[in-house]
Amino acid sequence: MAAMAHETRCHYGEVPRELGGLPVEPGFRIIADGQFLLRCASGFGYHYVPGAGITIERPNHADPDEESLWLNGSVYAAVACLNGLYPVHASAVASGGQVYAFTGPPGAGKSTMITGLGLRGLAMFCDDTLLLDLSDPQAVIALPGHKRLKLTDHALALTGLAGEQPVGAGTGKSYVVPPAGDVREPLPLARLVFLEEGPSAQWRTIEGAERFVRLADDHYTQDIYHEAQRPDRAALFAQRARLAQQVGMARLVRPLSAAGFAASLDLAAQRLGLPIKENQL
Amino acid sequence: MTGELVKAVGRFSETTIDTETVVMDLDSGDFFSLTGTAAAVWQRIDGTRSREALIAELVIEYPMAPAEIAGDVDAFLAQLLSAGLIAGT
Fold first, then answer.
1. Which of A94, A122, A197, A211 could make a disulfide contact with A183, Cβ separation 3.0–4.6 Å?
2. A212 vs B contacts (CB less than 8 Å)
3. Are A190 and A99 in contact (CB under 8 A)?
4. Could A238 and B13 be called an inter-chain contact, meaning their C-beta atoms sit closer than 8 Å?
């Protein structure tokens, strides 16, 4: 964590137009020579050099909302991956010194789920991107999130919360204060729950090879990880096998209605053994 | 195929999750999930057993007709040979 804080120090300046001998046009990114260069179509630029932090090039008439979205998204992920961390597309809560993460494709309800559990008293651990430290072969350690909690209007309606401020940059989302606060220390990952939509709330423990198969992740942070670490098939297999062996997994199917949402929170808390408060939704 | 069967070391990665074995062909990226007799066969391919020895052991372990076990073993060995994951004589 201290290393990430050190590596993500930011300052403003001009970023290079090429990296590793390759030109990088607006709208493209590259990882080369252990560095990361992103040139956004809007004119923002980000250049990470290990040990030196991040240089941000801010265009004239820049949208400050866009600046932080790139910084907390692709740029932070690239710094994490270049420093050996493994990203998972997930939002998570913490309880009892362990992390319980919820994953699924965009729109699956990851942020909504942890907000709902927050309303039942569970602290947020991360939103959207879960970073894992796999340096200890005996433990899968999760790093606390760096992103603010963001919800769509639909999620605000489901949770009954008011947005703190718009995220902007055309996202249609609002920043929200985590209802039960957040946790700022690394903790072991206890469980990974795959969110799916269905007609009724159902829970199924995932066993055997399905845990391995389920770990296929097409989130953009996985692309960045591959570009940063360039793992071969054997290394990727070993990594997925390790996560499949060490992290318990389950599938939570539920309707995305208000009633289905409340039922899914109760079901998830019960099956995960999480202590929650009475229904406040 | 009458001699001892050996795995093509370096051609695959394998792991066991709960009671299932996952084997990935490192050339193609294809992987196989092995349970039951297939997992038992794969675990016994260690350079000391022939096809006949494998079948003889499985006949004792599984409540299936010997001919059925032999058919399953032959079909699975053919798959593994075709994928280049084992060799035999």
1. A94
2. 15, 17, 22, 31, 33
3. yes
4. yes
